[in-house]
Amino acid sequence: MSEGRYFYDTNAICEILKGNPAYKERSKAGGSTTLFNLAELNYSLKRQGKERADEQTTDYASCLVDVTVADVLEAMSLRVMRRAFSVPDAIGYVVAKRLGLKFLTGDKEFQGMDNVEFVK
């Protein structure tokens, strides 16, 4: 599943795992994510008591892309301006722009932003 067309934020991966039909076709196009998003995903799944949290998280390991120091610096500048963003999603947004991927999310904080495909 490497790069593909989309960058999956944590919300997008959760919706894919839930079987949300709005995400089904988009997941077929393939996507990327960061280790930070997978950490957030794993935490969320474990907090919900999901028995397969580790397995479901590991399923997305092939989608991982590298994060640079420049990505982190830009993302934290963005997060200072938009505090509602999680650290993983701010980093993911910057990485998506750098890689030329659409940032796929259902997080309302990103609605209307450049390079975002907002899906509920």
UniProtKB/TrEMBL annotation:
InterPro entries: PIN-like_dom_sf (IPR029060), PIN_dom (IPR002716)
Name of protein: PIN domain-containing protein
Signal sequence interval, chain numbering: none
Domain PIN: 6-114
One Pfam family matching this protein: PIN
